[in-house]
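subagent[fold] <- orchestrator: predict structure for attached chain, return tokens only, no commentary.
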Amino acid sequence: MEYYKALMNSLQRGLVSSVYLFYGEEEYLKEKAVEKFIEYLLPQATDFNLDLLDGEETEISTVVALAENLPFMSERRLIIVKNAPWFSGKGKSKEGGEESKEAKLTGKDTVLLEYLNNPAPTTCLIFLAREAVDRRKKLYKAVGAKGQVVDFKMLKPTEMIAWVNQVMQASGNKIESAAVRELVETNGKLGLLNLTNEINKILNYIGSEQVITVTDVREVGIINIEQNIFTVVDDAVAGHTAKALNGIRELLSLKEQPPKILALLARQFRIALQANALLQSGCLEREIAGKMGMHDFVIKKALAQVRRGGTPRIKWALEQIASIDADIKKGQRDFLPAIETMLIQFSHQHY
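subagent[fold] -> orchestrator:
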């Protein structure tokens, strides 16, 4: 969490760069950082000096044109570009090499590069990247040279425990050490956004000024959703499509949100691919768990899934989940019909 504290410290001291690139898996802190920038830079005249854009729907020329505008009744303009696709790691060449043909600049990218090399001093431009970034790209390097690149990494368990204690203290509640560990182990793997939702459930359940115990954490109904996801993926790779669909419906009946289900499905498929890649590179199965920082049974399950499902099918499923997630956020598809179609197609994939 040190990267976040350092960023907030710079902001409070008035050390604001003209351009930022925020990427990484910790979406909650990313959102909080954006809120803090809005609060600090635009205490007044927000309507005139704030632009919220979607990079997947906005042309680069539009972003640059807005960034070059002067602020109105304020020292700065603030432009936030979500889903910025221009820094992604697609088309990578070998690690440490030059940009591949796919990673080279297009004509439109050049417009952005020219701006990044000489950004407007009265504009703060923040890019939020959903995908992994390619550090070899000229656009990435340009942001680093003229501004700041921040990797919003997932917090370590010890950092999450400290964060939960702070949240509980601010709410007027106390929580037993064992209850904090239970909460983090069960819900922390998806990041602080998921952990926050679970904390809110607990606080709504027990009220204020109470001591939260392990029993409270469990009684609120925080189930081990990961085990359910294991089962869904097991059924899918085994061709038991109906069972996999029932597993998805059961998660929905337990009030689990579609973004959380998609994130966990994607995570499980990624674990399977990563574990298999390590195995293929010569790593012993018993060593993979240590390298990936996971329990042995998780890795054994993942390797069994990729052996049964096949690497091409697993990769296909991961791509489909990303597509479904993007379409849902754009309002183009509904979760349940989309995931049902994906699982049915998954059972018929042949390579």
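orchestrator: received. Logging for downstream: Residues 78 and 241 are 48 Å apart (CA to CA). The chain has three domains: 2-151, 157-219, 225-347.
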